[in-house]
Amino acid sequence: EAQVTQNPRYLITVTGKKLTVTCSQNMNHEYMSWYRQDPGLGLRQIYYSMNVEVTDKGDVPEGYKVSRKEKRNFPLILESPSPNQTSLYFCASSLIQGDREAFFGQGTRLTVV
Amino acid sequence: AQSVAQPEDQVNVAEGNPLTVKCTYSVSGNPYLFWYVQYPNRGLQFLLKYITGDNLVKGSYGFEAEFNKSQTSFHLKKPSALVSDSALYFCAVRINTGGFKTIFGAGTRLFVKA
User: Fold this and answer.
1) How far is B61 from chain A (nearest CA, A)?
2) Contact indicator for B33, B91 with CB cutoff of 8 Å
3) Quick one: CA dihedral B38, A43, B26, A102, positive or negative?
4) What are the average pLDDT values for consecutive 10-residue runs of chain B, which has 114 residues?
5) Which residues pair with B95 in a beta bridge?
6) Are A58 and A44 in contact (CB under 8 A)?
7) C-beta atoms surrounding A91 within 10 Å
8) A interface mutation test: which of B57, B90, B91, B101 has the most A CBs within 10 A?
9) Taking CB atoms and an 8 Å limit, are A43 and B104 in contact across chains?
10) Distance CA A4, CA A104 (A)
11) Are A98 and B34 an interchain contact pair (Cβ–Cβ within 8 Å)?
C-alpha cells in the first residue's frame, strides 16, 4: 500500500530536549516536505527536499533541521524544542513535477512543556 | 507577499443542497492549484487539481472546482452535499521558486446538516 508513515503520532516533551520525528515513504517520490498545522493558520511549510542531499527552507524553518540521506526518509529534527513549537506536524511526499499532488502522513501531535 | 485566502472559516449547508468553498490566491506566475480534505485525526487527502485547460475540473467524491484566472480564484463546489462531506478543506497553490513551494490557505470547515 502506498503510504507516508510518520512516527511518533503523539509526543509530549520538555523544553530543550532534542527530538526527531521520522518520516518514510514507499512510493519512490523525489519530493518530500514538512508542514506544521496551527488553528487559523492552515499548513505552513517548514522545509522541503527535491531529492537526496537537496533540502531548502520553507516559510517557517527557524528551530528545525532536516536531512535527506536516503530517498525514502526525511526526518524532522528539533535540536532545542520550545513551547511555540507545540503543533501538529505533517510530512508529505510527491513526484518531482510541480503539478503532482502530495501524499500526507497521519500527522504527529507534538506538545512542548 | 504570496498568499492563499479562504475567506470563510466555516460553511454550513443542508444535505442535498449545493455547496461552495471559496479560495482566492495572490502569487506570481501561473501556479498549480489544489484542493485537499482533512477528516478528523487524519492527514490531508488530495481532492482535485487545476494544471491547465478546461476551467472546470472534476475530482474525487463528486467534487469539482472552477478556476477563474481574472479573479485568481479556485472555488470548490459540489452539486449535492452529503453529511459525510463534513470535514476541513484546504486550498493550496504550488509555485516554482527554483524548487517547488506549496502555500496553503487557512482552511474552511464544512458542516453538512442532515
Assistant:
1) 16
2) yes
3) negative
4) 92 98 92 93 91 91 95 97 96 85 93 96
5) B101
6) yes
7) 29
8) B101
9) yes
10) 6
11) no
